[in-house]
Design brief:
Layout (H helix, E strand, L loop, with lengths): L1 H10 L2 H28 L20 H8 L5 E6 L7 H11 L5 E6 L6 H5 L6 E6 L4 E6 H4 E4 L2 H5 L3 E5 L1 H13 L4 E6 L9 H9 L2 E6 L13 E5 L7 H12 L3 E5 L8 H9 L2 E3 L3 E4 L3 E2 L2 E5 L2 E2 L16 E2 L4 E3 L7 E8 L4 E4 L4 E4 L2 E10 L11 H7 L1 E8 L7 H6 L5 H11 L12 E2 L10 H29 L1
Parallel strand pairs: 1-2, 7-8, 7-9, 9-10, 10-22
Antiparallel strand pairs: 1-3, 3-4, 5-6, 6-23, 11-17, 12-19, 13-14, 14-16, 15-18, 18-21, 19-20, 21-22
């Protein structure tokens, strides 16, 4: 009994009570942590990791979110790499991306532990396999396609530097490809000193399943039947009368043509005539804008955008930069079935500058002419309204005043601009069953300021704010001395 009484007295002391309280508190805290871990484990991946990277590389655009939201086919993503050793940026993004859709699953397979997976899929390690069993289509993404490198830096610095992160663009393109049977044929004209399409453009086109081939209208008197879009990229010389007729005939049958005007003042009467047929009159000289320009470079223009619907998809900054652009004004089209949408214009302080004159006004930098072409398979008397609508077609003739809008030197220097997104939206706008799912790689380099009035802003930062701070400090010092 004596021992029992001693034990009771031990637990009745202040120190024992404090100890019991500490043990109880610790147990409660441990229980709370365990419960929180269980709860957090059930939270979807996209809510767990915040994007604090400099260039928002983990941010997923509305384009991808919409695609994944509407996904009605099962897509399997197999990553042939050890998840623990893989680049954390890739593993983080892949898991976050897949968590946005219940129809997307991710499986990490270590090729060291399962070497047969490489031979079975004819793939290498550090590769992502994207497949859809319903369509029986698959494609591969290499890690080197996601984390891209600037090889040219090797010749100047001796090191290869990371230049871009393209996880979202590659994955969204792959998912769209394996779940979609639509492929479009694009023809790029040659024979007039056209500029080649840069890799920045062709890569975006490939992401939307747009295949590009060359077309010489001198050797081929008509546009091929499988053509979905003809691109004339900055032709330095005029097209012939026969080529103009071929393009006009193609448009009259519901075709799509996209023209980037060249940086030239050489007369191009046939191109100008084709433009006038669709309500666009080409002005002489180059366009300057004293109100909407980049750091007082009047020929570096930020046009005013007037866009809506699918053409506005994915535009984040609502800003594009056009350099040394030709300008247009609206004129009466050849037919009343043609309507013109001028989606890029200068301010009222725009100028058409030629050797002879400087004409002030508002000039069109980008426009699309749409023509509704009635079907001729059935007469209006015999066809129902629904049949007539189904037989009708639309042609789209899109003109940009300059091809600098897709120039890599601009799109890479100012990655926050919407140049490529706008061009891709207009490109897919006239293509049936195609949407622009082309997402630019996120730059891992330096982003440059694209403010329209950077000179005034610089004066404010360099002089205005310091003067204001010194003035306030001087006022407080004088006030305290008098006190």
């Amino acid at each position: 009994m004596g021992n029992v009484e001693k034990i009771k007295k031990m637990f009745q002391t202040a120190s024992s009570r404090n100890g019991a309280y500490s043990v109880g508190t610790t147990a409660v805290v441990i229980a709370i942590v365990i419960v929180l871990n269980l709860i957090i484990g059930k939270i979807p991946e996209q809510y767990l990791k915040l994007d604090i990277s400099d260039n928002k590389i983990y941010e997923i655009t509305d384009t991808s979110r919409e695609l994944l939201k509407n996904l009605d086919k099962k897509v399997e993503i197999q990553v042939l790499a050890d998840e623990e050793d893989a680049d954390k940026r890739i593993s983080t993004f892949v898991n976050k991306y897949a968590s946005l859709s219940k129809n997307v699953s991710v499986e990490w397979i270590d090729p060291v532990l399962h070497p047969s997976v490489l031979s079975e899929n004819d793939a290498e390690s550090n590769t992502i396999l994207v497949s859809c069993e319903e369509t029986d289509k698959s494609t591969q993404i290499s890690f080197s396609d996601i984390i891209q490198y600037d090889m040219s830096s090797y010749y100047t610095t001796g090191n290869v530097q990371e230049s871009a992160f393209d996880a979202e663009g590659q994955l969204t393109s792959a998912v769209n490809y394996v779940t979609n049977d639509v492929n479009k044929k694009i023809y790029r004209t040659s024979g007039h000193g056209e500029a080649t399409l840069g890799s920045n453009v062709t890569e975006m086109m490939e992401k939307s399943n747009l295949n590009v081939e060359e077309l010489n209208l001198v050797m081929s008197p008509s546009v091929p039947e499988d053509c979905d879009l003809v691109i004339l990229n900055a032709p330095a010389k005029d097209i012939s009368e026969e080529e103009k007729e071929a393009l006009s005939s193609y448009l009259s049958q519901g075709g799509n043509v996209m023209l980037f005007l060249a940086e030239t003042t050489e007369a191009q009467p046939n191109l100008a005539a084709l433009m006038e047929e669709y309500g666009m009159k080409l002005e002489d000289g180059f366009i300057a804008d004293t109100s909407r320009c980049y750091q007082n470079n009047y020929y570096y223009i930020f046009p005013q955008l007037s866009i809506s619907g699918e053409m506005a998809n994915g535009l984040s900054s609502q800003m594009v930069l056009a350099v040394n652009a030709r300008g247009m004004t609206e004129t009466e089209p050849a037919r009343d079935t043609i309507t013109l949408n001028a989606f890029m214009k200068t301010s009222s302080n725009g100028y058409a500058v030629s050797e002879e004159d400087q004409k002030q006004g508002t000039y069109i930098i980008g426009a699309v002419a749409t023509e509704t072409i009635a079907g001729d398979s059935t007469s209006e008397e015999d066809a129902s309204e629904e049949d007539t609508e189904e037989a009708a077609k639309e042609s789209h003739f899109t003109v940009f005043g300059t091809n600098s809008i897709v120039d890599a030197s601009i799109t890479e220097t100012f990655p926050t601009l919407d140049n490529l997104t706008l061009v891709m939206n207009t490109m897919t706008n006239g293509l049936e069953d195609v949407q622009n799912v082309s997402i630019e790689a996120k730059s891992l380099g330096i982003s440059y300021n694209t403010m329209k009035h950077a000179d005034a802003f610089s004066i404010l930062v360099v002089f205005g704010i310091p003067i204001a701070v010194v003035g306030v400090g001087l006022y407080i010092w004088i006030k305290r001395r008098k006190a």
